[in-house]
Design goal:
The protein has 349 residues and is of the alpha/beta class. The chain is built from 14 helices and 12 strands.
């Protein structure tokens, strides 16, 4: 019986290449610290001996570092690539990961009991969380995990850095701008809770019980501005959509139009430019007009005559990543501005 060939070690490679053991370790783990000629010699020696580089998992266990930033994402994974808001946010995180030579790991959550285990078992050094509900158990688990973390939009949780806008103030301002052009507000809202049930309701039922802080703060801002303008928020129709998609806004607006009195000048308040553009498609198809507000400050929305709020999600992604990786606490809240193309001259929305 032949004797199994002994697996080559770091010492064998060092002897073969005529270098020290530390040089071999640096060649595989910190190549920038080894001269190019020496690195080539070590790699050639490793190839001759059949040496396999150290296992990444084992190395992570020894060092306590994985080189991965975990992105906790309570959406379908495809949403991260299909939704312009989410894609911009993730691009900002990627910018920092490139600068810091980090990897990104998307960790989806589904509102089930397995979410906490899935998040805590991920081999990551820190977490960035996409906005979630107040009662999400993942928040408490992450805050107690001993790993640094940040969240876009909220909720506010001790131990997790929150990055986002003052959604209440921005919502109040965009409604005030819109009501200078029209008189009957209706709302197309983001989901109210993790069940994401689409519903047609009225302002009287909101924002009590709204679990997503971003949605709650925007609805609160809407309510304050509508009331201050002398209109009845409790009678304001609100259509809640499941996802931030144009087609869902198109359908939602059809239901809202039935509640707009004849002769009124409608103002359609939406929580994103995507929803605003979907609402505009429905209006165009019916040959009707309305003042429309969005959110995110996209060029497409502005060119369509939509009043919108700037929302630099790529920058928020960068700030979240830097906060999670231990940078100084970023400035909060993120600045915003209402952009009203209707105020610059006669324009048809």
């Amino acid at each position: 019986m032949s004797t199994p060939r002994k697996r080559p070690t770091v010492k064998d490679v060092a002897a073969e290449a005529g270098v020290g053991v530390m040089t071999v370790s640096y060649t595989f783990n910190r190549p920038e610290r080894v001269a190019a000629e020496t690195r080539s010699r070590v790699l050639a020696a490793a190839e001759r001996l059949g040496y396999q580089r150290p296992d990444g998992t084992a190395r992570a266990l020894r060092s306590g570092r994985t080189g991965q930033l975990g992105i906790v994402f309570g959406e379908h994974l495809s949403y991260a690539f299909d939704d312009l808001r989410a894609a911009a946010f993730l691009a900002g995180i990627a910018d920092v990961c490139v600068e810091e030579a980090m990897g990104m790991m998307l960790i989806p959550t589904h509102g089930t009991d397995s979410d906490t285990d899935r998040v805590l078992e991920a081999a990551v050094d820190a977490y960035v969380l996409w906005t979630t509900t107040d009662d999400d158990p993942v928040l408490t688990a992450v805050a107690r995990s001993g790993r640094s973390a940040s969240i876009q939009g909220g909720p506010e949780v001790p131990g997790i850095t929150r990055i986002g806008q003052d959604d209440h103030a921005a919502a109040n301002a965009v409604v005030r701008a819109a009501l200078s052009h029209g008189d009957f507000p209706v709302v197309i809202s983001f989901p109210l809770d993790k069940q994401r049930n689409p519903v047609l309701t009225d302002g009287g039922a909101l924002p009590d019980g709204v679990a997503f802080p971003v949605t709650r703060q925007r609805l609160t801002g809407y309510a304050q501005a509508v009331t201050a303008a002398g209109r009845d928020w409790s009678a304001t129709p609100v259509a809640v959509v499941e996802r931030n998609r144009r087609d869902q806004a198109e359908t939602a607006l059809l239901g809202l139009l039935e509640h707009i009195p004849a002769g009124a000048s409608p103002v359609v308040l939406t929580m994103s430019d995507e929803l605003a553009l979907g609402a505009r498609t429905t209006l165009n198809g019916l040959g009707r007009t309305a003042v429309i507000t969005g959110w995110d400050g996209s060029p497409e929305a502005l060119s369509a005559g939509i009043i919108t709020v700037t929302n630099p999600l790529r920058e928020q992604g960068r700030l979240c990543a830097r906060a999670a990786l231990g940078a100084d606490t970023p400035v909060y809240p993120i600045g915003w501005e209402v952009l009203d193309p209707l105020a610059e001259g006669p324009s048809t929305p």
